[in-house]
Write a sequence for this structure.
């Protein structure tokens, strides 16, 4: 049996564009002699369509789009993810064959945790369907259906499925691909079935979908794996009949069947014979990327898709000469090309000659546009205006933040003047503890490093240089102690704990939800108390931050939803 997994980069709401992507991949799969083509979850609409699913016109248009796809399913069977309304809305797999819609499978398990909110939109399915192509029995499932142990995967196996197919939109975090495949290996072994997993790829607002579609045999061995972070049509020949030998000797399956009493009821659909092939199509197994390469690929894909899918052409970055803006600019050039990136240095009287020259050197290293706009006169104009109008003489933090807000105003002016998207440069550590200025360094349409801890920013900068084989981020930028340079001799460590001590506490508190008591047992008490107080106090700032790439298991925003008005201190 020859199968093709179409790892597509869809666009939410772009029904015509998604249709064209599906039809193009369907043609390619047919040309490759595939018997079965599998597409990602909700490929027709893009994932997640969120409240577009509450609009009847959108659901109706999705039905019409699916009909066009079904008409193209001649000489091949296509499993296509789509919303389906019949008494209630379902997250569905449409079975298309012979130019018609032959069957609908409705997703059983609807995730409602982390970034998922599917109970808001869909009703759970209960029925099972089994497809017969030649002598091969295929059981379709959707995403969460195989994350849950047991049914529906085991029910389909008990009913005779030799190949389980999973249409998925499984979002990325660092290490997710390996974790996910480990789970899929267990499901294939438990079901004694081949398993074909087709995942979405691409960026959608904060989410990145990493692809890494895979085909496993009934022993959980990888037969084929697609690359991550790019579109791919993964075509491979499999022998599902080989699963018969393992099933004959696998007593666990028989015990499960005895305990269930009866084979689960399902509807069987006959879909015609398989194509006879003279040759064998053996797909490659693309290895997983390293941790830092996964970060780079996710950040560049997330940024590129956000920029392109939202109709921007060029972007602008405030280049301070510090590590965050340098890493941001380097990643932006990696994602978009130097001709689409503009760096703007905005020195004040507190800006050192080192950071000022590093900002210029960064732009030269990257080959992108550069301009220097000193802010001292703008800042002084704000001071004099306030002094004349209210008699206020700004000092301390108020005076520092005024500089950051002057820079933010200039960046937004350039954005309005040229149509450039402002990419802000703050990292997760700063955002966590509120070491950032609202309407200042937080302004922008996209926050690329929003989910990257400060210590990882340094690691990424070094990695980008190593990967390029030359200096992109100036070495002096990497080696210099971090400073906002908003007052004389300022260092970040004057206001917050050292990042090497702070980041492990943030990871434990923000991402693992460890309690104060647990943290005090493991980390320095002063760092814990300072960090937790700062994190809890800064929630109002995070609510106003731009969207940014989700890179870790629990990101601010869609993942972590803490009330602003909140007196819990544990």
């Amino acid at each position: 049996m020859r199968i093709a997994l179409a790892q597509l980069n869809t666009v939410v709401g772009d029904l015509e564009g998604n249709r064209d992507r599906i039809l193009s991949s369907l043609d390619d799969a047919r040309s490759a002699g595939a018997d079965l083509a599998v597409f990602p979850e909700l490929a027709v609409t893009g994932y997640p369509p969120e409240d577009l699913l509450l609009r009847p016109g959108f659901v109706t248009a999705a039905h019409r789009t699916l009909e066009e796809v079904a008409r193209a399913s001649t000489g091949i069977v296509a499993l296509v993810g789509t919303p389906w309304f019949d008494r209630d809305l379902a997250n569905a797999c449409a079975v298309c064959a012979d130019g018609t819609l032959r069957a609908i499978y409705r997703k059983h398990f609807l995730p409602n945790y982390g970034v998922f909110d599917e109970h808001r939109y869909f009703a759970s399915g209960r029925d099972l369907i089994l497809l017969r192509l030649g002598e091969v029995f295929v059981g379709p499932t959707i995403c969460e259906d195989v994350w849950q142990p047991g049914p529906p995967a085991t029910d389909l196996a008990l009913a005779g499925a030799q190949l389980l197919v999973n249409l998925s939109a499984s979002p990325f975090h660092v290490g997710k691909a390996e974790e996910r495949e480990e789970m899929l290996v267990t499901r294939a072994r438990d079901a004694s079935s081949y398993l074909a997993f087709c995942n979405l790829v691409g960026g959608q607002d904060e989410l990145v979908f990493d692809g890494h579609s895979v085909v496993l045999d009934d022993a959980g061995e990888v037969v084929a794996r697609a690359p991550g972070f790019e579109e791919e049509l993964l075509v491979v020949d499999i022998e599902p009949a080989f699963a018969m030998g393992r099933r004959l000797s696998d007593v666990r399956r028989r015990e499960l069947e005895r305990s269930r009493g009866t084979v689960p009821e399902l509807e069987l659909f006959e879909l015609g014979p398989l194509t006879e092939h003279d040759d064998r199509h053996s797909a490659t197994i693309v290895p997983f990327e390293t941790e830092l390469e996964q970060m780079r690929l996710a950040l560049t894909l997330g940024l590129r898709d956000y920029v392109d899918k939202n109709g921007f052409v060029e972007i602008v970055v405030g280049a301070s000469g510090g590590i965050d803006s340098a890493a941001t600019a380097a990643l932006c050039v990696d994602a978009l090309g130097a001709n689409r990136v503009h760096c703007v240095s905005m020195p004040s009287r507190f800006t050192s000659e080192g950071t000022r020259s590093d900002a210029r050197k960064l732009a030269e290293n990257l080959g992108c546009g550069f301009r220097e706009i000193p802010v001292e006169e703008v800042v002084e104009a704000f001071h004099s205006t306030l002094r004349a109008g209210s008699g206020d003489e700004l000092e301390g933090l108020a005076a520092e933040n005024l500089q950051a807000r002057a820079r933010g105003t200039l960046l937004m002016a350039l954005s309005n003047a040229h149509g450039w998207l402002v990419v802000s440069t703050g990292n997760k550590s700063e955002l966590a503890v509120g070491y950032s200025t609202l309407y200042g360094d937080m302004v922008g349409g996209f926050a690329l490093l929003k989910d990257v801890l400060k210590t990882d920013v340094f690691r990424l900068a070094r990695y980008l240089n190593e990967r390029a084989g030359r200096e992109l981020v100036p070495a002096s930028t990497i080696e210099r102690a971090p400073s906002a340079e908003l007052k004389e001799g300022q260092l970040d460590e004057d206001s917050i704990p050292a990042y090497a001590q702070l980041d492990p506490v943030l990871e434990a508190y923000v991402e693992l939800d460890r309690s104060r008591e647990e943290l005090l047992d493991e980390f320095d008490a002063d760092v814990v108390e300072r960090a937790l107080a700062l994190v809890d106090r800064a929630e109002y700032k995070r609510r106003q931050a731009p969207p940014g790439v989700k890179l870790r298991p629990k990101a601010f925003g869609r993942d972590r939803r803490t009330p602003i008005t909140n007196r819990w201190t544990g």
In short: Residues 396-418 form the longest helix (23 residues). The first strand starts at residue 2 and ends at 7. The radius of gyration is 27 Å. The CA atoms of residues 108 and 125 lie 5 Å apart.
